[in-house]
Amino acid sequence: MTYTLRFDQIDLAYLPQVGGKNASLGEMFQKLSSKGILVPDGFAVTADAYRELLSQNDVRSEVERVLSELDEAAFSNLSQVGKAIRDLIMECRIPEEAAASIRQAYRLLVERTHVHSVAVRSSATAEDLPHASFAGLHETYLNITDEESLLNACLRCYASLFTDRAIKYREDMHFDHMEVALSIGVQQMVRADVGSAGVAFTIDPETGLDSVIIIDGAWGLGENVVQGTVNPDEFTLYKRNLREGRRAVIDRKLGRKQKKMIYAEGTDHEVGATLVNVDTTQEERDCYVLTSEEVTHLGQWCLMIENHYGRAMDIEWAKDGLDGQLYIVQARPETVHALRDPHIVHTYELKERGRLLASGIALGSKITSGNARILHSPAEADKLLQGEVLVTDMTNPDWDPIMHKASAIVTNKGGRTSHAAIVAREMGIAAIVGAGNATEAIADGQLITVSCAEGQEGRVYDGRLKWEGTSINTREVKLPQTDVMMILGDPSHAFRDAFLPSAGIGLMRLEFVINNSIRIHPMALVRFDELEDEDARKEIERLTMHHKDKETYFIEKLAEAVATVAAAFYPREVIVRLSDFKTNEYANLIGGKQFEPHEENPMLGFRGASRYYSDLYREGFRLECEAMQVVRNEMGFTNVKLMIPFCRTVEEGRKVIGLMADYGLRRGDNGLEVYVMVEIPSNVILAEEFAKVFDGFSIGSNDLTQLTLGLDRDSGLVSHLFDENDESVKQMISKVIRVAKSKGRKIGLCGQAPSDFPEFARFLVECGIDSISFNPDALLRGIENVNVAEKRFGKGKARVARPVRGMTVG
After folding, report:
1. 370, 361, 367, 362: which is closest to 348 by C-alpha?
2. Is the pLDDT of residue 810 over 90?
3. pLDDT tens, 683-698?
4. Which of 126, 159, 259, 411 would you label with 286, given CA atoms 20 to 30 Å apart?
5. Which CATH number do you get for residue 134?
6. What is the widest separation between alpha-carbon atoms in the chain?
7. Catalytic site positions
């Protein structure tokens, strides 16, 4: 028998002998090292050694007997069965020939690498298959530094084949316990304890969008990220840009990274005893664990690994704090979205709001209600009833048998790639991780609603709230000839909404990004030295500390937000409306009061285009333009078109177009198109002249209705008169559509009316409008209304929805 094989001797064909984890490591070590990917050297202890252990110690029949007593219905005796088998194996001796082979392989590894410290990882012969991942089920032991500790670690790995969670998982996946053997990987230890580590997915783990790579990381050894002990840093990269050598990082989020796992000093080197979790310093929490260059480098490796395997991958990485090098320490097929039909899209909408109890990172987009059950350890499993919401500090694989009973999971700690997140995705249930104080804010037994349908932030509400759920098969949705597009404000919805059948984004509002992500008035960044508010100065210093200067903060945050949407929908067009805050809204931004005049009626005042060329805001507009330059020119998202809001006169339009050119955004360069909003009667009356200045029009039905009827739509006294179906408004709309078509300019409409009122959709179709944009929750209703209208007016046959970016069409 062959008891050990070097990584350079094995590849994927050796899975029966060395298990999925080791076969993958050997595959990468052999075939990707030459391409520059660093995989730590090592060797595999083969499945032969495990089988020989059972045979020579004569325990196989006893293991089978104990397994036969397992309650396969309720798993009431799972803990007793698992412990009995683990005790049996821990009393065994590793056969002498196998032990000698392990000792010799370790000595040769030390000779090759000059490194004594190794990681010892379990590798089951049925794991990491495209349809099943055994991630976290078996044990790993780090910083093993001598032969005796190595043999002890191997024995513990063998015993971990029968942890409670591993037994339950094999039962769920219908694997024969005795047919699954265990191999062991012994790998040169990467000194991430003085560096950083984490995981990467070559697919968005929430939505399955396959055009991005998600990288999570924290200080110290990677177990904290995998187990969800910390809220990690997160980076999103766009694959096309990695391939083309463009700026690829389209989003980054700074995690709290509360702990780091390191080696303890002065211990007795018992297996696992040299690892401790310590608090990070404030400086470490305030810094990203990887530079932009390192993130890009790691992203390129992830892309190479995905291309080599031909499928989405779940990858573990580590950065050695001594040599400064990045390493890939594990890669397995991604198994959650591989099993799902990407054409089936589930959408949920919360119909009412309640008292907010806690919030964190949302997993998936589901909503559910149930009684909260606060558990502090897996030993309290009997307290959790079927269908209750599990609320706990964090989870690890020991929780797996319990979590299957939960309707949702809420944890204080963890990120999108933590253990709780991975299990929740596999089970298809709602989960919120990294909620901070959930176990304190939620009472045991309290009836709660867990909502993951409001963007990247998941929220826990008091009580049972009303919601609606819809399942859509995008293969069956018939798109009309009129382009149906979407309105979007929050970029965190983009990856999910990209799977809905649409022609792209007809209106992306920048106000949400500026208000919720940037939060600072642009002029307070440009003229920071003049800022008088000391509290605002301190807050701005804190928020901008990771950027080279104050202006760069605004440019990068805005660029990444727009790039996230552009990447999700590429190559479909994304029309970005430049900022349209009113003075009272701008004043509420940090540092804003000093730079905003007071107006009695901000709705009709200093807003839209008139701000852009004014000395009061010109430099702020420059920052918006520079951000759009980054998106279009550095990141290559030429599917982004720009739109000017509230442009009162043709001359004002020319001024803005000229100013944009001064700031590097010239119409026609790199295919740039600039649209104008039609929301003022002057835009309709002088539509022919506006068509000479702009490439297209988008009707803002709310403001156009307001100004045509001469009413304030925010006033309760006259709001009953607000009606897009009023004949005067419809004449305005029909005229501007007619002019746009005659001048060869595209024209669309953004608003709720075509989904709420089928007759309004019919009116737009009859006028020959090019596109209609809906809010995502109204999209399907809008598509139906437009299809009915086209059928009535004979605009053409409906067409089957085009394949959506991020979906695998087969």
Report:
1. 367
2. no
3. 999 999 999 999 999 9
4. 411
5. 3.30.1490.20
6. 93
7. 419, 750
